[in-house]
Amino acid sequence: MNVRAAAAESVGGAGIGKSVRRVEDERFIQGRGRYTDDIAAISGNTAHLFLLRSPHAAARIVSIDAVAARQAEGVLAVITAAEMEAERFACFPTRVKRQLADGSPALEPAYFPLARDQARHVGEGVVAIVAETLNQARDAAELIDIHYEPLDAVADTARAAQADAPKVWEEFPDNICFDFRAGDALRTEALFARAAHVVSECIVISRVGTNSLEPRAALGEYDPRSGRYTLHAGLQSPHMIRGELATIFGIAPGRIRVVAPDVGGAFGMKGSLHPELVLVLWAARLTGRSVRHTADRSESFMSDHQARDNVSEVSLALDDDGRFLALRVETLANIGAYVASNGLHAPTNNVGGLAGVYTTQAFDVKVRGVFSNTVPTCPFRGAGRPEASFCIETIIDKAARQLNLDRAEIRRRNMIPPGAMPYRTPLVFTYDSGEFEAVMDKCLKAADWKGFEKRRREAGKRGRLRGIGIACVIEIAGGPPDRPFEEYAEIRFDPTGDMTIFAGSHSQGQGHETTYHQMAAELLGAPSAHVRVVFGDTDAVAHGRGTFGSRTMMAFGAAFVRASERIVEKAKPLAGHLLETAGEDILFERGRFVVAGTDRSVSLRDVARASFQLRTLPAGFETGLQASASVALDKSTFPNGCHICEVEIDPGTGQRDIVAYHVVDDVGTVVNPLLLKGQIHGGVAQGAGQILDEFIAFDADAQVLSGSFMDYGMPRATDLPAIGVESHPVPTTTNPLGVKGAGEAGTVGALPAVMSAIRDALAPLGIKEFAMPATPLRLWRAIRDAQAGP
Amino acid sequence: MAMTMSGEATLPASKEVVWAKLNDPDVLKACIPGCDQLAKDDETHLSAVVKVKLGPVKATFKGKVELTDLDPPNGYRIQGEGEGGIAGFAKGGARVALSDAGGGQTLLRYDVEAQVGGKLMQLGSRLIDSVSKKLADEFFANFAKAVSEG
Question: Which chain A positions have a beta carbon within 8 Å of B4's beta carbon?
Answer without folding.
Answer: none
